[in-house]
């Protein structure tokens, strides 16, 4: 891994996050739809401009991108380095006053190595998790069972059964980045998602989770792969390493 790329990823995520905080402050929440659209646009443009300036030879896959920078681009498939970014993860939450469950995702994929760097900025929470300074997640607490982060708007139908099977509880949250960060910081013990995501939703969170020693895979235990021709990557498990075996076993039984 390149420390320079890691520092760059952190700085870029934080710069976009600062732009988004300032936008919230200036626009307010009277027109949430306009705020969300402007947030997506401004964060994307800032990230693209900085990548073009600082990493001009690298390819980009962005949720808000078009052409070669979007999901239908083909040049990234043969590139040696690809930045996979979500300029504003949790757009719904960004447009809600008082909601801090939104993030900026910056990840670097390198041929032959996969994800090598990543940064997840949580601007409204006031911190960034990144691979340049791999976080250490705290020891498992004394709670009765694992706390599992799930989507607050579209949790998988099987999640109640999964929680019951492992003696755990569900914690609804917004933004894939916020949920993965909650695992890294020990606020929850696992994050399980099914039903639709793309590479930009999970690349940076997974890079950070792996750097912290957490488990991350598809819900069937298959390895996560990035820079695919189709960037759809619909399901994800991020959890404490010691919980992976039991969670994956129960998921295999339920699905």
Automatic annotation (TrEMBL):
<dbReference type="Pfam" id="PF00459">
    <property type="entry name" value="Inositol_P"/>
</dbReference>
<feature type="binding site">
    <location>
        <position position="201"/>
    </location>
    <ligand>
        <name>Mg(2+)</name>
    </ligand>
</feature>
<dbReference type="GO" id="GO:0008441">
    <property type="term" value="F:3'(2'),5'-bisphosphate nucleotidase activity"/>
</dbReference>
<dbReference type="GO" id="GO:0046872">
    <property type="term" value="F:metal ion binding"/>
</dbReference>
<keyword id="KW-0378">Hydrolase</keyword>
<keyword id="KW-0460">Magnesium</keyword>
<dbReference type="InterPro" id="IPR000760">
    <property type="entry name" value="Inositol_monophosphatase-like"/>
</dbReference>
<feature type="binding site">
    <location>
        <position position="89"/>
    </location>
    <ligand>
        <name>Mg(2+)</name>
    </ligand>
</feature>
<dbReference type="GO" id="GO:0000103">
    <property type="term" value="P:sulfate assimilation"/>
</dbReference>
<dbReference type="GO" id="GO:0050427">
    <property type="term" value="P:3'-phosphoadenosine 5'-phosphosulfate metabolic process"/>
</dbReference>
<feature type="binding site">
    <location>
        <position position="86"/>
    </location>
    <ligand>
        <name>Mg(2+)</name>
    </ligand>
</feature>
<keyword id="KW-0479">Metal-binding</keyword>
<dbReference type="InterPro" id="IPR050725">
    <property type="entry name" value="CysQ/Inositol_MonoPase"/>
</dbReference>
<feature type="region of interest" description="Disordered">
    <location>
        <begin position="54"/>
        <end position="78"/>
    </location>
</feature>
<feature type="binding site">
    <location>
        <position position="88"/>
    </location>
    <ligand>
        <name>Mg(2+)</name>
    </ligand>
</feature>
<protein>
    <submittedName>
        <fullName>3'(2'), 5'-bisphosphate nucleotidase</fullName>
        <ecNumber>3.1.3.7</ecNumber>
    </submittedName>
</protein>
<feature type="binding site">
    <location>
        <position position="63"/>
    </location>
    <ligand>
        <name>Mg(2+)</name>
    </ligand>
</feature>
